[in-house]
Amino acid sequence: MRLITKRNFLKLSGAAGAFTLAGGHQLLAAGPKITVNTYGGLYETAVKDNFIASYKKATGNDAEAVIDIPSAALSKIQATQPNSDYDLFVATPNDTIRAIELNLAEELDPSKLSNLKDIPEAHYKNWDNKAVSFSYGIYGFLYDTRKIANPPKTWVEFVERTIAGEFGRTVAVHSATQAGILEGYIWPIIDAFGGTIEDPGVAFDKMRQMVPYTAKNFSDMSQVVQLMSTGEISIAPYVDGRAWSFVEQNPWANFIVPEKGGCIVSSQIVKVKNSPEDAWKLMDAFLDKEAGEGFTETILYPVTNSTVEYSPRMQARLTPMENIIYPPYFDLYKHTSALIERWNKEVGG
User: Fold this and answer.
1) Axis-axis angle for helices 155-163, 201-210 (nearest 10)
2) How far does the chain reach from its first CA to its final CA, in angstroms?
3) pLDDT at 30
C-alpha cells in the first residue's frame, strides 16, 4: 500500500490541476516537482536564486528548496520511503555517510550528470560514488584585530597560546551538539599534535587544558559572530564563508586559515533512492558553472566545479590547495560515539 504524505498529496493535486487546465497535454510534458532540503538564511537564498533557478530555466519544470537541517531531513527521507519527502538531499559529511549506509543514496550516473566531468574525482569518489560535494568551507580562526594583533598561524599555536592564557577567557569553541565538531575542531587538533583517531589522548589532554580560557561552547555558528560583536570573545575556530561575511561588515575583525591545516568541510548533494528521474537534472544544476558562480558570490563559499571563474573578491579569499587538509570522514564516522563520549566526559560543553 502506498502511503500518501502531505508532500505527495500536494504533488498529485498539482498534477491533477495541470491535467484539468491543460486538457491532459501539459501533464504529459511537465515533470514532477522536485524537492530538496536546504539550510536557512542566506544559504536558502543562494540555493533558490542559483541552483533552483538554473533547473527551472533549463527544464521548465518546478522545484522547491525547503529549509530543513540534514539530520532531520534524513529522518524524514528514511521514514517516507519509497516516496520520500525529499528527492535530493543536501548533507553534511556525517549525514552523507549515514544516507549511504542506510541505502538511501543512489549511485551516481555520469550519463545523467553533464557537469560531473568538471568536478575533481575526489569530491565524489570519497563518497563511494553515491554523493558529490558541490561546495565547501575551510576552517580557520575568526578573530578581533583590536585584541589580537598577531593571530595564531597553526593549530598548535592556537592551542598552546590559549592554554598559556594569552587570549584570556575570550575563546569560543564548539559544543558537542555543533555540526562540524569532529572534522572542524577535534580532528585537526588530533592531527596537529600527532595523535590518531584510535588514540586521540594527546588532543584531549590539550583540549582539557583549554577549558579555563573557554568563554563559550557554541552550538550554533551564528553565536560566534554575536559573541564577537558584543566583545565577549576575541577568537574562535570558524568557517571561511561566514567569517568573510562578518569581516565585510566589521572591519575590526579578520580571518586566517592555519598553515597546512585548513580543514575542508563540504556539502554534498545526494539523489535519494526511488526519487524521480528529473532529480538528476536538479542535481546537475548544483554542479553547474554559471549557477555555481552565482552561489559563491552570494554565500562566499567556493564550489567544486573546476571551471568556475571567481571574482577578485573571492579570489583573494580562496585557500591554496596545499593548505587544505581532508578529514578521514568515514573513520571519524565510525568513531563518532567514542569521540563524543570522551569529549563529554573529559572536556564538556
Assistant:
1) 50
2) 46
3) 66
Task: Write down the pLDDT at residue 118.
Answer: 97
pLDDT reading at 272 higher than 70: yes
The CATH number fitting domain 6-136+266-321, selected from 3.40.190.10, 3.90.1170.50, 3.40.50.1000, 3.20.20.80: 3.40.190.10
Domain ranges of the chain: 6-136+266-321, 138-264+326-346
Query: Percentage of residues in the chain with pLDDT exceeding 90?
Result: 77
What CATH number should be reported for the domain whose range is 138-264+326-346? Answer: 3.40.190.10
Q: With helix as H, strand as E and coil as C, how does the chain read?
A: CCCCCHHHHHHHHHHHHHHHHCCCHHHHHCCCCEEEEECCCHHHHHHHHHHHHHHHHHHCCCEEEEECCHHHHHHHHHHCCCCCCCCEEEECHHHHHHHHHCCCECCCCHHHCCCHHHCCCHHHHCCCCCCEEEEEEEEEEEEECCCCCCCCCCHHHHHHHHHCCCCCCCEEEECCCCCCHHHHHHHHHHHHCCCCCCCCHHHHHHHHHHHHHEEEEECCHHHHHHHHHCCCCCEEEEEHHHHHHHHHHCCCEEEECCCCCEEEEEEEEEEECCCCCCHHHHHHHCCCHHHHHHHHHHHCCCECCCCCCCCHHHHCCCCCHHHEECCCHHHHHHCHHHHHHHHHHHCCC
Using one digit for the tens of pLDDT, what is the confidence trace for 2-18?
344 545 544 444 444 44
Cell of 328: 578521514
Q: What is the pLDDT of residues 9-54, one digit of tens each?
A: 444 444 444 434 444 444 444 689 999 999 988 899 999 999 999 9
Rounded distance, CA 69 to CA 94, Å? 12
User: 317 Cβ partners below 8 Å, 6+ apart?
Assistant: 240, 244, 300
Question: Does residue 159 carry a pLDDT above 50?
Answer: yes
